[in-house]
Specification:
binds pyridoxal-5'-phosphate; Pyridoxal phosphate homeostasis protein; PLP-binding_barrel; alpha/beta; TIM Barrel; about 220 residues; about 15% strand
Length: about 220
């Protein structure tokens, strides 16, 4: 993508976020734009960095480990978010590489991350991913198991800052966003990671603190 395209797309997304926030009586700077760069190479990411974006999301540990160390050397103040499923045996790598993990969703991963954080002496913030539409094929903690999982995470000092969801495809997402917001409130959590390219404005009006936007910034993934 050309640099001016990146600048325009980034400006348009930031503007849409600000407008949605104001509609909901929220401050625009209460919403963090996570630019999801999965499947895009360093040459596609650099124009977005040059346009001023510093917060990026990846969904696979290995892909991120291949791309980001070099980009980070060029631009040290990057913050990297893991938005995809995390296998327990990659917990060490994830803790070393990422600043925020959005996909904590099961007791075995609570244990693996706690151990990895103790060893690394580094504690990335975590979102608990909720399987908000109760879909069999999707990651995320079932709603009925959320309280227990949060309790387990607290008992090993995982820094859980909020909840994350990916609503079912092709249906109106607003009720799912509203439900996630209610669950977060009920559990005293302030962070809400919700909203992607197709629905991030809706998510912002319903309280998203982090929107994960890929296609709208980088174009289609091939
Ligand atoms: C790919 C991905 C995104 C970004 O999706 P777009 O529709 O391209 O904006 C957001 N969240 C997660 C978990 C993803 O895997």
């Amino acid at each position: 993508m050309r640099s001016d395209d990146s600048e325009q797309r980034l400006a348009a997304a930031r503007d849409a976020i600000a407008r949605a926030a104001r509609r909901a009586d929220r401050r625009p700077d209460a919403v963090e734009l996570v630019a999801v760069s999965k499947m895009h190479d360093a040459d596609t990411i650099r124009p977005v960095l040059r346009a001023g974006q510093r917060v990026f999301g990846e969904n696979r540990v290995q892909e991120a480990a291949a791309k980001w160390p070099q980009l980070r050397e060029e631009t040290p103040d990057i913050r990297l978010h893991l938005v995809g499923r995390l296998q327990s045996n990659k917990a060490d790598d994830a803790v070393a590489l990422f600043d925020v993990i959005h996909s904590l969703d099961r007791p075995s991963l609570v244990k693996a991350l706690a151990k990895a954080m103790d060893v690394a002496g580094r504690r990335p913030s975590c979102f608990v991913q909720v399987n908000i539409g109760a879909e069999a094929q999707k990651g995320g903690c079932p709603i009925g198991e959320l309280s227990d999982l949060l309790e387990q995470a607290r008992s090993v000092d995982l820094p859980v800052i909020g909840l994350m969801c990916v609503p079912p495809l092709d249906v109106e997402p607003a009720p799912y966003f509203a439900l996630l917001a209610k669950l977060a409130r009920d559990h005293g959590l302030g962070g809400l990671s919700m909203g992607m390219s197709g629905d991030y404005e809706t998510a912002v009006t319903l309280g998203a603190t982090h929107v994960r936007v890929g296609t709208a910034l980088f174009g289609a993934r091939t």
